[in-house]
């Protein structure tokens, strides 16, 4: 009886050694995945940790005081200017005149600190010429908080500084890390990405419809398909060289937003074509045949039956292409993206910078605080990418159809 049981797995076609090898192989595949996820989580945690610091800052003018949470930015600046011994008339003029007000907010950063020597959640005003006395990591700064608080001198303040805050998202770049912001890079990325998609979407989706619905068979279809798949795998730096030769120098556009958008559009078109063709192929052939049987023309079948059914897949592909474009830095550096742009772009021919290039500039700076500013910029970029991927996943699940 026992011998029969021992031979039972072999009798039913189950080899114990093969099953054991399968389990070992499955674990060997899962191990690199878990390791990669763990390393990514560690990298993200390190970036978040570096975006906080404890600082002692000495005000260039005034007593370096903090302000209650309930006050508005105008009221905070009014009190700060009065503390710097400006007269009431001068303060009123600076806050009401549009030019003076703009300069005032550019030179003074009003930000909410989580913890200060005067209490939690208080505003501080940081000027361009304020001096950083000391900068500590989050753990070390909190451990030595009382010691640092007791050693504050005149005009100095102790703060727990979250480098990523509302003012960081809206301010222009600065030579001082205390007042630097990513607002210009965010607006530049919006300009470049919007124009690139405006160019790439009609060309990419139109090409996909042409190849999948009108040129399904033939030499042209095979030639274009091979070239498009090859172009989708070309390194982005090659597109940067092409954009430099064709748009920046050939067409005389210079280092402008339009040249950058056209370069990124070339990078996005093959990706959009491939994803759009897959979405069109997912539409059952029976829908086309039913429409033709009812007397519809090819144009009506394509644009009233097939295209609406494939649209969710196309939109998902466009969003994924946009997520790739927003993280590109190499081609934009070649076509003239400036590392330091102190003003907001106003049109397609403006000088510009984008989020990856701005982060690259901060990381390359010698001042340690700029590395914390770069960590905050990386978090902004990760949030944008996460939002795009989440939107693509939502649209895919929301409008997915089972044929």
From TrEMBL:
<feature type="transmembrane region" description="Helical">
    <location>
        <begin position="301"/>
        <end position="323"/>
    </location>
</feature>
<keyword id="KW-0812">Transmembrane</keyword>
<keyword id="KW-0472">Membrane</keyword>
<dbReference type="InterPro" id="IPR005672">
    <property type="entry name" value="Phosphate_PstA"/>
</dbReference>
<dbReference type="GO" id="GO:0035435">
    <property type="term" value="P:phosphate ion transmembrane transport"/>
</dbReference>
<feature type="transmembrane region" description="Helical">
    <location>
        <begin position="374"/>
        <end position="395"/>
    </location>
</feature>
<feature type="transmembrane region" description="Helical">
    <location>
        <begin position="257"/>
        <end position="280"/>
    </location>
</feature>
<dbReference type="GO" id="GO:0005315">
    <property type="term" value="F:phosphate transmembrane transporter activity"/>
</dbReference>
<feature type="domain" description="ABC transmembrane type-1">
    <location>
        <begin position="186"/>
        <end position="391"/>
    </location>
</feature>
<keyword id="KW-1003">Cell membrane</keyword>
<feature type="transmembrane region" description="Helical">
    <location>
        <begin position="24"/>
        <end position="45"/>
    </location>
</feature>
<dbReference type="InterPro" id="IPR000515">
    <property type="entry name" value="MetI-like"/>
</dbReference>
<feature type="transmembrane region" description="Helical">
    <location>
        <begin position="231"/>
        <end position="251"/>
    </location>
</feature>
<protein>
    <recommendedName>
        <fullName>Phosphate transport system permease protein PstA</fullName>
    </recommendedName>
</protein>
<keyword id="KW-0813">Transport</keyword>
<feature type="transmembrane region" description="Helical">
    <location>
        <begin position="178"/>
        <end position="211"/>
    </location>
</feature>
<dbReference type="Pfam" id="PF00528">
    <property type="entry name" value="BPD_transp_1"/>
</dbReference>
<comment type="similarity">
    <text>Belongs to the binding-protein-dependent transport system permease family. CysTW subfamily.</text>
</comment>
<dbReference type="GO" id="GO:0005886">
    <property type="term" value="C:plasma membrane"/>
</dbReference>
<keyword id="KW-1133">Transmembrane helix</keyword>
<dbReference type="InterPro" id="IPR035906">
    <property type="entry name" value="MetI-like_sf"/>
</dbReference>
């Amino acid at each position: 009886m026992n011998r029969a049981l021992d031979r039972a797995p072999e009798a039913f076609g189950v080899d114990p050694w093969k099953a054991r090898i399968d389990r070992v192989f499955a674990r060997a595949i899962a191990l690199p995945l878990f390791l990669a996820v763990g390393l990514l989580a560690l990298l993200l945690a390190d970036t978040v940790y570096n975006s906080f610091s404890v600082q002692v800052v000495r005000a260039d003018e005034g007593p370096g005081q903090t302000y209650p949470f309930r006050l508005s930015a105008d009221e905070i600046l009014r009190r700060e200017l009065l503390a710097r011994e400006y007269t009431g008339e001068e303060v009123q003029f600076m806050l009401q005149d549009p030019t003076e007000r703009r300069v005032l907010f550019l030179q003074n950063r009003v930000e909410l600190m989580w913890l200060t020597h005067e209490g939690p959640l208080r505003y501080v005003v940081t000027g361009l010429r304020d001096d950083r006395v000391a900068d500590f990591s989050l753990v070390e700064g909190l451990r030595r908080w009382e010691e640092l608080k007791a050693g504050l001198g005149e005009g100095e303040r102790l703060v727990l500084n979250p480098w990523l805050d509302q003012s960081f998202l809206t301010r222009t770049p600065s030579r001082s890390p205390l007042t630097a912001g990513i607002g210009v890079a965010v607006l530049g990325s919006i300009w470049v990405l919007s124009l690139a998609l405006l160019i790439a979407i009609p060309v990419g989706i139109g090409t996909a419809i042409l190849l999948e619905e009108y040129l399904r068979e033939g030499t042209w279809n095979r030639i274009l398909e091979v070239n498009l798949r090859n172009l989708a795998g070309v390194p982005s730096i090659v597109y940067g060289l092409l954009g430099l030769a064709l748009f920046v120098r050939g067409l005389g556009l210079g280092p402008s937003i339009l040249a950058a958008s056209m370069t990124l559009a070339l990078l996005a078109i093959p990706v959009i074509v491939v994803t759009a063709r897959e979405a069109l192929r997912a539409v059952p052939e029976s829908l086309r045949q039913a429409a033709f049987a009812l007397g519809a023309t090819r144009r009506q079948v394509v644009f009233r039956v097939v295209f609406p059914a494939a649209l969710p897949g196309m939109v998902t592909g466009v969003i994924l292409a946009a997520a790739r474009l927003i993280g590109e830095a190499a081609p934009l550096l070649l076509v003239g993206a400036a590392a330091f742009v102190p003003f907001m772009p106003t049109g397609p021919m403006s000088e510009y910078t984008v989020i990856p290039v701005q982060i690259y500039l901060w990381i390359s700076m010698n001042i340690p605080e700029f590395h914390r500013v770069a960590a905050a910029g990386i978090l902004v970029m990760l949030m944008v990418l996460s939002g795009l991927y989440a939107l693509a996943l939502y649209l895919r699940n929301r409008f997915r159809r089972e044929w």
